[in-house]
Amino acid sequence: MTPIVKAVQGVKESIVNIHGHKTISTASAIGDAPRQVNGMGTGVVVDERGYIITNQHVVEGVRRIQVTLHDGTTYVAQLIAFDEKTDLALIKVEAEKPLPVVKTGTSSDLMPGETVIAVGNAYGYENSVTRGIISALHRTVQVSDTQKYYDLIQTDASINPGNSGGPLLNIDGEMIGINVAVRVGAQGIGFAIPVDTVMDIASQLMSIERLDRHWHGITGETKFVDGVAQMHVKSVDPNSPASLCGVQAGDVITSVDELDICWMLDIERALLDHETGEEVSLKLQRGEGDEKSLALVLQGQGGANALVDAAWDLLGIRVQMVPTNEFRSNNTRYRGGLKITAVKAYSPAARQQIRVGDVLVGMHEWETISVDNLEYILKSDIIAQKRPIKFYILRDNETYYGDIAVANYRVR
């Protein structure tokens, strides 16, 4: 019972194998017919209700995503959301019982030379385990003309096709990364997305705004104090459920609805599947050990339900107003915008490579400072004409634009 054996045994039930078929086109000759290829990969359970994080390229274009649990049970998964920039995706299976959630560490204190373990579906050999060390940190890797990764962990643990989406573990059996890439032709050079990035993106993909059309108004970050993860509140949206119940910037949220809170993802998990108007218990620490118990009442997402439905059905997005002070802090030349909180797979927005985290600042000739602006646009004659409409987004303080097609739908 070595430390590596114990580490693997502690997480093996949280790791799943992913199989599927996708159609790809061949460019070798004009007129070549598309062909079916077998795809494989790995995923990790991040919520006991069957939510699984994996790489987006593992499930991209797969019509029937088959997920096999550690006990051999196989389910067909649904693609919930994905983030193309980081190559992460959230899928879900309707399991018959709660699934064990992966134990999570942090990538903020990793050291070159540290022992790591990779687990995955390497070349279809399920639950393969390899070990190595961290070779380097903060690597930028270009794997194709269209895919570039940033801030990766480099390891010499064997990472092969099929390992993608699986966990990279530390010696304590905590996930510290998601395996993502291997250099073609190289030996002993593999890469993983740091777990701090994974948890941040997972919280966006699994947000209650996207899945339940609720909101809480909390923006937070995880800090490790004496090796213990703490979820610190960075800001609270005005008039949000969190603001109304008394949550303040600087608070440390310790539990929500009896679930211990370490990450923003935990807040989304705790609030998921509750009803509008339902009261949820929230505990936090303020100042020097001042503990408080609050009652957060869930509200529907900002804006009328008709607007929420229209933006989702017509464009494939859900949005949230960005506070004015946040815009000013970014020194942007725009007066305001709507943050993209969810993007529907294969929607007009997804086809235009709009991502979660982008800020919609304009459509056609109008600004999109508030949900009222977007509602006006969706009810306008330009939408009724069913022609592509110009959109403008902010990403990393850079402006991008394009023409987005709209569905055969209009707000009434």
TrEMBL record:
Superkingdom assignment: Bacteria
Entry keyword annotation includes Hydrolase: yes
Keywords: Hydrolase, Protease
InterPro entries assigned to the protein according to its UniProt record, in alphabetical order: Chloro_Bact_Ser_Proteases, PDZ, PDZ_6, PDZ_sf, Peptidase_S1_PA, Peptidase_S1_PA_chymotrypsin, Peptidase_S1C
Matches recorded under SUPFAM superfamilies: PDZ domain-like, Trypsin-like serine proteases
Swiss-Prot/TrEMBL GO biological process terms: proteolysis
Example GO molecular function: serine-type endopeptidase activity
Domain PDZ residue range list: 205-288
Keyword Transit peptide: no
Family statement: Belongs to the peptidase S1C family.
Name recorded for this polypeptide: Periplasmic serine proteinase Do
Organism from which the protein derives: Blastopirellula marina DSM 3645
Classification of source organism: Bacteria, Pseudomonadati, Planctomycetota, Planctomycetia, Pirellulales
